[in-house]
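hey m, so remember when u said the C-alpha coordinates were messed up on ur end? i reran from scratch. heres the input so u can diff it against urs
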Amino acid sequence: MKQAAFAGCLVAVLAACQPVVPDGPDLSTCGAAALQGLVGQPASVLQTMKFGQETRIIRPDTAVTMDYRADRLNIDIDRNERISRVHCS
Protein backbone atom coordinates (compact mmCIF):
# COMPACT_ATOMS: atom_id res chain seq x y z
CA MET A 1 0.00 0.00 0.00
CA LYS A 2 2.84 2.38 0.87
CA GLN A 3 4.51 1.63 -2.46
CA ALA A 4 1.38 2.59 -4.39
CA ALA A 5 1.11 5.87 -2.50
CA PHE A 6 4.79 6.58 -3.07
CA ALA A 7 4.45 5.82 -6.80
CA GLY A 8 1.46 8.17 -7.03
CA CYS A 9 3.39 10.98 -5.35
CA LEU A 10 6.41 10.36 -7.56
CA VAL A 11 4.29 10.60 -10.71
CA ALA A 12 2.76 13.88 -9.49
CA VAL A 13 6.18 15.37 -8.71
CA LEU A 14 7.66 14.32 -12.04
CA ALA A 15 4.67 15.68 -13.95
CA ALA A 16 5.24 19.06 -12.32
CA CYS A 17 8.81 19.08 -13.66
CA GLN A 18 7.82 18.96 -17.33
CA PRO A 19 8.89 22.04 -19.31
CA VAL A 20 6.20 24.45 -20.40
CA VAL A 21 5.92 24.62 -24.19
CA PRO A 22 4.27 27.72 -25.67
CA ASP A 23 1.14 27.23 -27.77
CA GLY A 24 3.04 28.28 -30.87
CA PRO A 25 4.50 31.31 -32.55
CA ASP A 26 2.62 34.60 -32.51
CA LEU A 27 1.46 35.09 -36.10
CA SER A 28 0.45 38.71 -35.50
CA THR A 29 3.97 40.12 -35.05
CA CYS A 30 4.82 39.88 -38.76
CA GLY A 31 1.36 40.00 -40.29
CA ALA A 32 1.15 36.25 -40.96
CA ALA A 33 -2.21 35.93 -39.21
CA ALA A 34 -3.88 38.08 -41.86
CA LEU A 35 -2.27 36.06 -44.68
CA GLN A 36 -3.33 32.55 -43.67
CA GLY A 37 -5.74 32.53 -46.62
CA LEU A 38 -2.71 32.17 -48.88
CA VAL A 39 -2.06 28.63 -47.66
CA GLY A 40 -2.94 26.21 -50.47
CA GLN A 41 -2.79 28.91 -53.15
CA PRO A 42 -0.32 28.67 -56.05
CA ALA A 43 2.97 30.46 -55.42
CA SER A 44 2.32 32.64 -58.47
CA VAL A 45 -0.16 34.75 -56.46
CA LEU A 46 2.83 36.22 -54.61
CA GLN A 47 4.07 37.93 -57.79
CA THR A 48 1.32 40.53 -57.54
CA MET A 49 1.69 41.15 -53.80
CA LYS A 50 3.81 43.73 -51.98
CA PHE A 51 4.81 43.24 -48.37
CA GLY A 52 5.63 46.05 -45.95
CA GLN A 53 8.24 44.09 -43.98
CA GLU A 54 11.12 41.77 -44.67
CA THR A 55 9.73 38.66 -46.32
CA ARG A 56 11.39 35.34 -47.13
CA ILE A 57 9.95 33.07 -49.79
CA ILE A 58 11.26 29.62 -48.87
CA ARG A 59 11.18 26.86 -51.44
CA PRO A 60 12.28 23.24 -50.89
CA ASP A 61 16.05 22.91 -50.50
CA THR A 62 16.45 26.67 -49.97
CA ALA A 63 19.12 27.53 -47.42
CA VAL A 64 17.87 29.97 -44.78
CA THR A 65 19.45 31.43 -41.68
CA MET A 66 18.31 30.08 -38.34
CA ASP A 67 18.17 33.46 -36.60
CA TYR A 68 14.79 34.32 -35.15
CA ARG A 69 13.14 37.63 -35.98
CA ALA A 70 9.54 37.91 -34.87
CA ASP A 71 8.88 40.69 -37.38
CA ARG A 72 10.04 38.70 -40.43
CA LEU A 73 7.36 37.12 -42.63
CA ASN A 74 8.16 33.67 -44.03
CA ILE A 75 6.19 32.03 -46.80
CA ASP A 76 6.95 28.36 -47.41
CA ILE A 77 6.40 26.92 -50.89
CA ASP A 78 6.12 23.16 -51.37
CA ARG A 79 7.41 21.05 -54.27
CA ASN A 80 4.09 21.48 -56.10
CA GLU A 81 4.58 25.28 -56.12
CA ARG A 82 1.80 25.78 -53.57
CA ILE A 83 2.02 27.93 -50.45
CA SER A 84 2.23 25.46 -47.58
CA ARG A 85 2.82 27.75 -44.59
CA VAL A 86 2.84 31.44 -43.67
CA HIS A 87 4.62 32.24 -40.41
CA CYS A 88 6.85 34.63 -38.49
CA SER A 89 10.53 33.99 -37.73
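this time it looks ok to me. Residues 2-16 form the longest helix (15 residues). if urs says something different then somethings off w ur setup not the seq
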